[in-house]
Design goal:
This protein has 132 residues and is an alpha/beta fold. The chain is 42% helix and 18% strand. The longest helix has 18 residues.
Length: 132
């Protein structure tokens, strides 16, 4: 499954990639990670239909992951599940507004990242359309 990781911070993308490894849980498929640092590339990938799960950094500049998530949920047909990385607990309401499927708090804990993405992968596997 393809997992998109969006952040303008290479260290954040690296932490997510390391946390996921080749397979975030034994009962999910191997992952191919697609890294993006710019909003246009994220929309290009999400619109392609090739992404199974997205992990978006809410602190990315200039286009934060929350706004990108909201736009994707509004505009992308069969939008993949999205996990938002949030820096503050109080940002959870913004994650809800953006219609994120899950939240990953900062600082990034590898087990939390892996468990969250694995759950979204399971959800995507059970709902994915076979019309590719």
């Amino acid at each position: 499954m393809k997992v998109l990781v969006y952040s303008d911070d290479a260290a954040t993308r690296d932490k997510v990639r390391q946390a996921l490894g080749r397979r975030p849980a034994a009962d999910v498929p191997f992952v191919e990670i697609v890294e993006c640092a710019t909003e246009p590339k994220v929309h290009q990938w999400l619109g392609s239909g090739d992404i199974d799960v997205a992990v978006l950094d809410g602190e990315t500049q200039p286009a934060g992951g929350m706004g990108v998530c909201r736009q994707a949920k509004d505009e992308v047909y069969n939008c993949p599940p999205v996990a938002l990385i949030i820096a503050r607990r109080d940002d959870r309401w913004l994650a809800d507004w953006s219609r994120a499927d899950a939240v990953i708090p900062q600082p990034l804990e590898p087990m939390t990242v892996a468990d969250t993405v694995a759950e979204l992968m399971r959800r995507r596997s059970s709902t994915r359309l076979n019309a590719k």
